[in-house]
Design goal:
4 copies of one chain form a homotetramer. Chain A is mainly α. The first copy, chain A, has 3 helices and no strands. In chain A, helix 2 (about 45-75) runs antiparallel to helix 3. Chain A is flat, with a radius of gyration of 25 Å. Chains in contact: A-B, B-C, C-D. The interface between A and B is medium-sized, with 28 and 28 residues. Chain B binds a DNA duplex (16 and 16 nucleotides) through helix 1 and helix 2.
Chain lengths: ~90, ~90, ~90, ~90
DNA sequence: TCGCCTGATAGTTGCC
DNA sequence: GGCAACTATCAGGCGA
């Protein structure tokens, strides 16, 4: 009996995954359509992809910077109630 | 002036793409979550992935068979108005 | 000195790769020639490519089925020294 | 009867293609092995790929130059028995 | 957690 | 010259 339950659970999980993958593919198709539309308007898809890639990297870069800053903030947090810590904070910002 | 219009168009296209890519990534994360959930329930993610892959391939296989059959039908189509062609078609189906 | 040795090693590796890529390209050209020959004989290259693709997929399909079965066997293997596990194995095969 | 002949021809062509594709895949595997070997020796595969790509482009560039030169040579060939052609040739070389 | 390896994605070449 | 097949690259997932 518990085998049936397991099999049913497995079936449901597989179906959820397949449904999500179908959605993902649909969006991928939408993206392709937008590039097609851009091309029809006279833009170069290759260059656009390059721009998208660069912006993603810039965002990633900013996120990393932000994370680093958070780390500093946390490290300095424990010192923020001391005069020396206050000074370090003022230099890091 | 038309440069501004082009630049604006480009900006809109890029933003649409970035929004779609964000959605796509979100769904990819959802899929990962489902696998995580399955693992927590005691299923082996590797086997599940293999099953999903296999089912996808079976579907692709059927589609390809259908496409091949269509191609044959088209190739035979040029004979469909002759008795012999009719016979060939009936054998191919 | 060891730099020279490294440089020489690198050169040899690069040359081996370039030689292999040349061979690969040669074979790709041969394949193209065969399709050309087929076309000259009156066959439709598009259909031929579809057939080749389909046969490759069928092979891949069989391999995948086999791999899945192996995975199941491995998953059941942990039970193979119990009577109940033996029974499960006999049902799965 | 001619159908049988055609089918047999088609079979032979398909088999030749499949055999060539198997060879091609084998060489692709060999290339992968060489990169693996290089990596094991301490080289960076990504950089090596870049080098191979650049050398291919350089070769292509040289080939184009050579082709252009041939075109000039051919164009000048028809003039090579005239004093002016002789002069042009001497300038082009 | 890191390296490997497979699967997804972008670029290129050949065909129509 | 556009489109589709194919190849090469890259990133995410798996195993050690």
């Amino acid at each position: 009996m518990s085998d049936n339950i397991s099999a049913e659970q497995l079936r449901l999980l597989i179906e959820r995954i397949e449904r999500l993958e179908a959605e993902k593919q649909g969006i991928a198709d939408d993206i392709k359509d937008v590039y097609g539309e851009a091309k029809a308007t006279g833009f170069d898809a290759k260059i656009m992809r390059q721009i998208v890639r660069e912006r993603k990297m810039e965002k990633h870069h900013r996120d990393e910077q932000e994370a680093l800053l958070d780390t500093y903030r946390a490290a300095l947090g424990m010192l923020s109630d001391t005069p020396l810590g206050q000074y370090a904070l003022s230099r890091a910002a």
